[in-house]
Amino acid sequence: MSSTVNRIVKVLGEGSFGKVFLVENTTDPSRKMAMKKMLFKEEGVKELIESECRVHEHLSRIGHENLVKMLGVVTIKTTSCIYLEYIAGGELRGKIKKNGMSLQKAKFYFRQLVDGLHFLHQNHVVHRDIKPQNLLLTELDDLKIADFGLSTFYRNEDGEEKMLDGFWGTRPYGSPEMFKMEAYRGPPVDVWSAGIVLVYMLSGKLPWEAATDLSLEYVLWTNGVRREPWSKMHEETIDFLKKMLNPCVEDRATIEQIKEDPWLATDVRPIRSVKRKVGNKNGDVQGMETRAKRQRLEA
């Protein structure tokens, strides 16, 4: 991966620890790669970069069609350059319009996301930052999971599952157990994030700012009240989302269960009106709005 045979074409993106560049071979410009250049001067960053390389190397050695493949890594002093296959179609986010996309198209992308996550979890890896910006598309619309900067192994070398801690990822996609700052299991956080991605694909909107009791929309969801974006979705789709966006980790569907769920295989049906609940055992919507505002003021 010598820099003498590659030249930087342009910047593809920028993250917390560095930038991603498009590079091409100087003797054969058709040979293109993405280069993630990172500096690890800050304390703790070096460990994150080393962890990313270990995880990505492990996954790339096996390989999967829905994961961006790592081609190599070069580290010189305080700089690491990870070379990756170049995915020319851009981010999934670019395909999501203001009002979302069709159910048929969303299922097409979501099946590929689930296949990729299934592969990750089978190989004892949790991504922890699933979002449209980290889902890349080829020119043929094949989806690839990218950016393993926050990923980690969730099993020890002896195969025993280990608990994780700390908040990692992006707030609107984070699962409720991560916000509690307690130990949590790895795979369920990816399932939750995938559910948020599906909501975003279908509606063009994020359902809440964060999955905490300080978010009114999240409180309404957990209490069974359905406003936008839910009111515009099929009942079958909402039932499917409930399996992924279940605040109770023990009751949340696994990626294996999501992969085998009939919703992913069924044909798209004409949308029917959704009966929305206007209250629950804790009071009506107005009452919950008041309580949520009070909680935010007290926080």
From TrEMBL:
GO CC terms in record: cytoplasm
Record key words, sorted: ATP-binding, Kinase, Nucleotide-binding, Serine/threonine-protein kinase, Transferase
Residue ranges that the Swiss-Prot or TrEMBL entry lists as coiled coil: none
Binding site for ATP: 36
InterPro entries: Kinase-like_dom_sf (IPR011009), Prot_kinase_dom (IPR000719), Protein_kinase_ATP_BS (IPR017441), Ser/Thr_kinase_AS (IPR008271)
GO BP term, example: intracellular signal transduction
Record-annotated Protein kinase domain positions: 6-264
Gene3D superfamilies per UniProt: Transferase(Phosphotransferase) domain 1
Top EC class, one word: transferase
One Pfam family here: Pkinase
Catalytic activity: L-threonyl-[protein] + ATP = O-phospho-L-threonyl-[protein] + ADP + H(+); L-seryl-[protein] + ATP = O-phospho-L-seryl-[protein] + ADP + H(+)
Composition bias, Basic and acidic residues: 290-299
EC number: 2.7.11.1
GO molecular function, one term: ATP binding
UniProt region (Disordered), positions on chain: 279-299
The keyword Iron is annotated on this UniProt entry: no
Family according to the record: Belongs to the protein kinase superfamily. CAMK Ser/Thr protein kinase family. NIM1 subfamily.
Official protein name in the record: non-specific serine/threonine protein kinase
UniProt source species: Caenorhabditis brenneri (Nematode worm)
